[in-house]
Design goal:
Layout (H helix, E strand, L loop, with lengths): L19 H21 L6 H17 L10 H4 L1 H13 L3 H22 L12 H15 L1 H17 L2 H29 L1 H15 L3 H27 L22 H32 L7 H6 L2 H21 L5 H36 L3 H25 L5 H18 L2 H16 L4 H4 L7 H4 L8 H18 L10 H10 L20
Helix pairs in contact: 1-2, 1-10, 2-4, 2-10, 4-5, 4-16, 5-6, 6-10, 7-10, 8-9, 11-14, 13-14, 13-15, 14-15, 15-16, 20-21
C-alpha cells in the first residue's frame, strides 16, 4: 500500500487529512518557511521579495492545480500588480512604499487566490467581498492551523503502528539509560587522564560559538511561515465557500432606491447654483492669474494655501453626494431621470473645475517653495479623483455600469503608477531645478530621500555654492561609505546599485574647504 494513502483513524473526522496531497503540502510549507528565512532573515529586502512571491504562488498553483481554470479575467490579471509591487523592492529604495507594499502585496495575493480557486462568497466588486478578504487573511489561516498539528500527530501515530516504532522506542530507552552511566564514566576518565580532561574542557568553548538566540530566531521564523502557509493553502482546496460568486444580489447596483427623486432634484439644483457661481469666479481667477499675475495683495503662499484643502474636502463631499444619489434615489419618470442626469453631470463638471483649481494652487505653491512627499502625492490623489469623477459621470448615463468594479481597477492601476513614478526622483529633480532658478534649496530635506534621488543630488556637487556643496559632499560621502559595505545577493536592489555606480565616479570627502571645495567626476 502507498505510504501516503488514506488510513483509518477511528472516525474522528480526520480520515481525509492523511491524503498524500496534504503530506506533500506539509513538506512544501516547511520549504517555504526555510526559503523565507534564507531570503529575509537579517537582510534588506530586494530581489528576495520577487523570489518568495513566485515560490508562494508555485505552492498554491501546485496544490490547487486540479481545480484551477486558466483564463484571462480580473482574477488572473491580478498577477501583474502583485509581481510589479514585489519588484519595487528590487528597483527602488523608497521605504514608505516598501511599508505600504508590505501590506498591499499579501492583500492582493489573498484576493487573487480566493478568486482563482473560487473560494469567495461574494463578487469581488461588492462591499461584502471585504469580508471574504478578512476571512482569507485571518479566518482561513488561523482557523486551519490546527490541521497542521493534527496531520503531524496522525503521521506519528502511523509510524507507531508501522513496526518501526518499537525499534525507535528501544533506541530511545537505551539512550536514556546510558546518560547516568556516561556521566560516571566521563568523571572517572577525566580524573585518570589530564590530556582527555584538557580536550573535554574545549567542548564548552566550541558550544559558545553557537548563538542560541539566532538559532531560536531562525526556528521561529521557519515554523511561523510554515504554519501560516499550510493553514492558508490547505483552506483553498479543502474549505470551499458556500454561495459562491452566484451571490450577485450583493452588487451595489441591485439596491432599491429609498430617496425621493423630487427632493434630490431640489437639493442638487440648490448646490449646483452655488457651485456654478463659484466656478465662474474660479475661471476669472485662474485665467486672470495666468495672464495678468496674481490678484492684488495676494502672494503665492496665500493664493496656494487659501482654500486648497477646502476644495479637496468639497470634492470628496460631492463624490459622496453623487454615489449616494445614484445608489439610493428612487427611479421616477423618464423626465425625472433626465433631469437628475443633467444635475449629476453639472455637479461632476463643477467638481472637476474645483480639482483643477486645487491643482493649480498647489502648483503655484510648489513652484515657489519646492516639492515634498505630501505635495507630490496630493497631486497624484487629485489626478485619481479626476479619473474617478469621469467614471462616475459615465455611470450617470449608463445605469448598467458597475461603479465599484471600475473604482477597484482604477485604484490598483493608480497605486502601481505611483509606485513606478519614482517620487523621490521627482522631488529631487524639481527642487534642484528650482534651486538653479532661485538659489533656494533645503539640502536637509533632499538628504532625507532614498537612494533613488542620489543621481539627481550629484548635480549639486559642483553648483558653485560652498555651503550647499559642503553639505552635499558630506551626505554623499556617507552614502558612498554605506554602499561600499556590500550586501548579500538576496538584498540586490537596482536603486542602490545605481547609486553605488554613480558615486564611484566622484572623489568625495567628508569635509571640504579651499581648493578642495569643488570636485568633478573622475575621468
Amino acid at each position: 500500500m502507498d505510504d501516503f494513502s488514506v488510513v483509518e483513524v477511528k472516525n474522528d473526522g480526520n480520515e481525509n487529512l492523511l491524503k498524500k496531497e496534504n503530506v506533500y503540502l506539509l513538506v512544501i510549507s516547511l520549504l517555504l518557511g526555510i526559503i523565507f528565512d534564507i531570503l529575509f532573515y537579517d537582510k534588506m529586502p530586494g530581489i528576495s521579495c520577487v523570489i518568495f512571491v513566485l515560490a508562494f504562488y508555485a505552492a498554491i498553483l501546485w496544490h490547487s492545480r486540479k481545480s484551477l481554470e486558466l483564463k484571462i479575467d480580473f482574477a488572473w490579471l491580478l498577477s501583474i500588480p502583485v509581481l510589479m509591487l514585489a519588484l519595487t523592492y528590487t528597483l527602488f529604495s523608497n521605504e514608505m512604499f516598501w511599508a505600504l507594499n508590505f501590506l498591499g502585496i499579501p492583500i492582493l495575493v489573498v484576493v487573487q487566490t480566493l478568486l482563482i480557486t473560487k473560494n469567495n462568497k461574494y463578487p469581488w466588486y461588492t462591499p461584502e467581498f471585504i469580508g471574504d478578504i478578512l476571512n482569507g487573511i485571518f479566518g482561513r489561516t488561523l482557523g486551519n492551523i490546527t490541521k497542521l498539528f493534527k496531520l503531524i500527530v496522525l503521521l506519528l501515530r502511523r509510524k507507531q503502528n508501522s513496526g518501526k516504532h518499537s525499534t525507535f522506542k528501544k533506541v530511545l530507552t537505551g539512550l536514556i539509560i546510558s546518560i547516568p552511566l556516561l556521566l560516571i564514566i566521563i568523571a572517572l576518565l577525566t580524573s585518570a587522564d589530564q590530556v582527555f580532561e584538557h580536550f573535554l574542557g574545549k567542548i564548552p568553548e566550541i558550544l559558545e560559538n553557537f548563538n542560541i538566540g539566532r538559532i531560536l530566531a531562525h526556528a521561529i521564523i521557519i515554523i511561523s511561515i510554515s504554519v501560516f502557509a499550510f493553514g492558508y493553502i490547505w483552506s483553498l482546496s479543502n474549505n470551499p465557500a458556500e454561495e459562491n460568486c452566484s451571490a450577485e444580489k450583493a452588487d451595489t447596483g441591485s439596491r432599491k432606491g429609498v430617496w425621493d427623486p423630487v427632493v434630490i432634484i431640489t437639493i442638487l439644483t440648490t448646490i449646483n447654483i452655488i457651485y456654478t457661481f463659484f466656478v465662474l469666479i474660479q475661471f476669472s481667477y485662474l485665467f486672470g492669474s495666468l495672464k495678468y499675475g496674481l490678484p492684488q495683495d495676494f502672494t503665492y503662499s496665500e493664493y496656494a494655501r487659501r482654500g486648497f484643502f477646502e476644495l479637496v474636502a468639497v470634492t470628496l463631499i460631492n463624490f459622496n453626494i453623487l454615489i449616494g444619489c445614484i445608489s439610493f434615489t428612487k427611479k421616477g419618470s423618464n423626465m425625472v431621470c433626465t433631469v437628475l442626469r443633467i444635475l449629476y453631470s453639472l455637479l461632476v463638471f463643477c467638481t472637476l473645475v474645483m480639482l483643477f483649481s486645487a491643482h493649480f494652487r498647489m502648483s503655484l505653491y510648489e513652484k515657489a517653495y519646492g516639492y515634498t512627499y505630501l505635495r507630490v502625492l496630493t497631486h497624484m490623489f487629485m489626478a485619481f479623483l479626476f479619473v474617478i469623477m469621469l467614471i462616475t459621470l459615465y455611470r450617470v448615463w449608463n445605469e448598467k455600469f458597475k461603479l465599484l468594479r471600475a473604482y477597484i481597477i482604477v485604484a490598483v492601476i493608480s497605486y502601481l503608477i505611483v509606485n513606478y513614478m519614482n517620487v523621490d526622483v521627482i522631488i529631487a529633480r524639481g527642487n534642484i531645478d528650482i534651486y538653479f532658478e532661485t538659489g533656494r534649496i533645503d539640502v536637509n530635506y533632499l538628504t532625507s530621500l532614498s537612494y533613488d534621488a542620489v543621481p539627481e543630488i550629484t548635480r549639486l556637487i559642483d553648483c558653485g555654492d560652498a555651503e550647499v556643496e559642503g553639505n552635499v559632499q558630506k551626505y554623499l560621502y556617507r552614502v558612498k561609505e554605506r554602499l561600499s559595505e556590500g550586501e548579500p545577493w538576496q538584498s540586490f536592489n537596482v536603486s542602490r546599485s545605481r547609486a553605488r555606480n554613480v558615486l564611484s565616479g566622484y572623489e568625495l570627502h567628508e569635509s571640504i574647504d579651499g581648493d578642495n571645495r569643488r570636485d568633478s567626476p573622475v575621468q
